[in-house]
Specification:
The chain is mostly helical and 528 residues long. 45% of the residues lie in helices and 8% in strands. The chain has a three-stranded mixed beta sheet with strand order 3-4-5. Strands 10-11-12 form a three-stranded antiparallel beta sheet, with helices on one face. A two-stranded antiparallel ribbon has the order 1-2. Helix 9 runs parallel beside helix 11, helix 10 runs antiparallel to helix 11 and helix 15 crosses helix 17.
């Protein structure tokens, strides 16, 4: 059985380092001993030589001196939030002690010399927040004070919010959120009924990002009914954007276009499913592009009604490739409403990058399997893009129920039938299911999404996943095209379409581009 590692050198050369993360560290200023956590005087820490680290900003702060050596603030916080079954006494407790592999495995009694983490108020083990008890007790006190109606009683409607918020796995995150300057004012406004506890009431508050997060928390706790988050954000943006348009003629045209075309389509889409982030983003882009086109016409002493085909062609010739595609719905709407007469939007050809080659695709999959520096969530993301050719908008909609284990086989439901996950890649999916991110706060503790986000009932944003791929050096579109192309070289397009959730027209078009058609399938299988 692996037990806690022995002491490690406190310094490397003349530099103090954290015994757990091995990052260069600096000691805190000398202060009194903390008997509750077993912290010795900081003067007992070795001196720090910061030369060679290009400033003190790269050094972490040592907050504890444990048997294995100095421990930085980040490692100490993680130790105070790791729970499980101790490998020695087999009791389910806080596990601040590590095993030989650097994983939380020992309770404070079995590890020895780590201090007392028991809260004097609730009797639970955890991170101690000064003399007020554990972080959960302090969080309950502070939030209860903010939700006071002014007469010493809690606002009844906000009771479920208090219960849900204080039950989060990481109460320190809740304390950090309450410490933000604008959060107490928002909570007091709702508790004292200065602002109605409704979605319309929240729309009157600011700043928008803080209000959005608070709305998500209230929805997650059942205080407010669910609302289409992205549609609500678009409606708030639309009101503010229309107020910024100074030209009255432009404002009139854009208001009609927004109300009867762009916003109407979004409302129609919500009848079947919530509006996604990209659909809202495209709606904003369409309105902004229409405004820019009207400004272009005004600079040429023209209006939308006097715009000719030659004027439109002149704009298309000078505009970037993507802008005519964005403006085309506006021109069609103008023709339909008789503002313009038979204008035609010519779309210039759009160049495409070559897909990822087969050798590069294999290297990418090998990296996802063997790279220890890549997180499990990133590995699953790379596999979904580089092996199953899934777009990011579809990845964020996957749930844990889409990954199924039947006996020794693991499948993922991307279409009908589900696609098998070959060994040894299947263990990556199973490990991700057991250790998903963003489940330790009050927003998404019971999320069923494969990639839960930090907002209630929301997944990670596709742009966040794209950024993670970019940081890994993975080209999203090239990898997806390469994976789909390799699958179509050995499997008929209709089968690939059904298993991966594509349309047959899309897979057949890509199969033709790659030189493989349905007629080649029989010969291909015979040659195998």
């Amino acid at each position: 059985m692996s037990v806690a590692p022995g002491p490690v050198p406190a310094t490397v050369g003349s530099h103090l380092v954290c015994a757990r993360c091995r990052r260069p560290a600096r000691a805190k200023r000398p202060g009194p001993t903390d008997p509750r956590q077993g912290q010795p005087e900081d003067t007992a820490l070795p001196p720090v030589d910061v030369m060679g680290y290009q400033g003190r900003s790269r050094l972490v702060s040592v907050v504890r001196w444990w048997p294995e050596g100095p421990v930085c603030s980040g490692c100490f916080a993680r130790a105070c939030e790791s729970y499980g079954r101790c490998i020695l006494c087999r009791r389910h407790r806080l596990l601040p002690g590590m095993d030989a592999h650097g994983q939380p495995a020992l309770c404070t009694d079995c590890a020895g010399g780590l201090g007392d983490f028991t809260c004097p108020r609730c009797g639970q083990e955890g991170w101690r927040h000064g003399h007020g008890g554990c972080a959960r007790c302090v969080l309950t006190d502070r939030l209860s004070a903010l939700l006071d109606r002014g007469d010493g009683t809690l606002a009844p409607a906000l009771g479920p919010f208090l219960k849900t918020f204080t039950a989060m796995d990481r109460p320190r995150s809740g304390l950090l959120w309450l410490s933000k300057p604008h959060v107490p004012a928002l909570l007091r406004a709702l508790a004292t009924e200065a602002v109605p506890l409704t979605h319309a009431g929240l729309d009157t508050l600011a700043p928008p990002k803080a209000v959005t997060h608070l709305r998500d928390l209230l929805v997650a706790s059942g205080v407010l009914p669910p609302v289409d988050r992205f549609l609500a954000q678009f409606q708030q943006w639309l009101t503010a954007w229309q107020q910024e348009i100074t030209d009255p003629d432009h404002a009139r045209i854009l208001h009609r276009y927004a109300a009867w075309c762009v916003h109407h389509r979004l409302l129609k889409a919500t009848r079947t499913a919530p509006v996604g982030p990209y659909r809202v983003q495209n709606a904003r882009t369409a309105l902004r592009q229409a405004e820019q086109f009207l400004v272009f016409l005004a600079d040429a002493d023209l209006t939308l009604a006097t715009c000719t085909q030659a004027d439109l062609d002149c704009w298309v010739a000078e505009a970037p490739t993507y802008q005519p595609r964005v403006l085309r719905p506006f021109i069609r709407w103008a023709n339909t409403t008789r503002i313009t007469r038979n204008l035609h939007m010519g779309i210039p050809p759009e160049g495409s990058r070559p897909p990822l080659e087969a050798r590069a695709q294999i290297d990418l999959l090998r990296r996802a399997l063997n790279d220890p520096a890549m997180s499990v969530a990133d590995k699953v993301l790379v596999l979904l893009v580089g092996l199953y050719a899934q777009p990011l908008t579809r990845i964020v909609a996957l749930t844990i129920h889409d990954v199924a284990r039947t006996g020794t086989e693991v499948t993922i439901a991307l279409g009908d039938p589900a696609s098998p996950v070959p060994a040894p890649l299947d263990r990556i999916f199973l490990e991700h299911l057991a250790h998903r991110e963003n489940l330790a706060t009050a927003t998404n503790p019971d999320s069923q999404l494969l990639f839960p986000g930090r907002r209630a009932h929301q997944s990670l944003h596709p742009a966040t996943l794209r950024l993670r791929l970019r940081n890994l050096g993975v080209a999203n579109l090239d990898s997806r095209r390469g994976a789909l192309r390799q699958l179509l070289l050995s499997t008929p397009a209709p089968i690939v379409a059904e298993m991966l959730g594509y349309t047959s027209a899309t897979t057949e078009r890509i199969a033709r581009e790659s030189g493989r058609t349905w007629a080649d399938y029989v010969h291909l299988r015979t040659s195998d």
